[in-house]
Amino acid sequence: NAGVTQTPKFRVLKTGQSMTLLCAQDMNHEYMYWYRQDPGMGLRLIHYSVGEGTTAKGEVPDGYNVSRLKKQNFLLGLESAAPSQTSVYFCASTDGAGHQPQHFGDGTRLSIL
Amino acid sequence: ILNVEQSPQSLHVQEGDSTNFTCSFPSSNFYALHWYRWETAKSPEALFVMTLNGDEKKKGRISATLNTKEGYSYLYIKGSQPEDSATYLCAFIGTGNQFYFGTGTSLTVIP
Asked: pLDDT per residue over B52-100, tens digit each?
């Protein structure tokens, strides 16, 4: 049982480049989330989705876009990467919003030079 | 943006000691509170989901309590073991479906 899978695990980009992070879950969860984790800041919510075809902004959405075309996949896009987006990105999914625990992927370490 | 505070930021205890940490959150618009255990180089794993004022949850040597009226939750570890070393995160979930994580308490258990 794979759970939540994030690809890639590591990536180095140059400023201005674009890329997409993929999150896939095999638990048929409705809710999916993208977070970034920075030293001393904890996990901060970037965007989330409450179902296929729906997305919403979280605490720190600027510079990111997301799509949820299929229930099992949640994509996070950086259109023009900036050094401030250097971070570790975590995806999570859950079946029942706040009344069920979140299941996390292993993270993607992204460096923007 | 909501303020979820955890204290202390870090803690070193001797093996066998019992310890506790605090998570403080807004007392309004409460929906749920989560506790997660996060080991280095791994992803966070859920410990407890708490939804009602006065909730008490227990898993082995770890337990948690919840006071939604005053906006705090305590996590207790009884008889700490080296394998308990990790960062413990709490997350406040408000009625708007967004998750707000604290910055965590880093626990080191010294053998």
From this structure: 999 999 999 999 999 999 999 999 999 999 999 999 999 999 887 778 9
User: 3-class SS at B1?
Assistant: coil
Contact present, A108 and A11 (Cβ < 8 Å): yes
Nearest Cα residue in chain B from A50: B97
For chain A, residues with pLDDT lower than 50 are none
Look at residue B98 in the predicted model and tell me its pLDDT: 78
Query: Between A50, A101, A107, which is nearest B97 by CB?
Result: A50
| Cβ-Cβ contacts under 8 Å, B104 against chain A | 42
The percent of residues above 70 in pLDDT, for chain A, comes to 99
Tell me the nearest-neighbour CA distance from B102 into chain A, angstroms: 6
Nearest to B75 by CA among B107, B42, B45, B28: B107
CA distances for B13 relative to A17, B37, B78, B81, angstroms: 46, 17, 11, 9
Question: Do the chains contact at A103 and B49, CB–CB below 8 Å?
Answer: no
Burial (CB count <10 Å: 0-12, 13-18, 19+), residue A52 = middle
Instruction: Give the gyration radius of chain A's Cα atoms.
Output: 13
Is B49 at the interface with chain A, CB within 8 A? yes
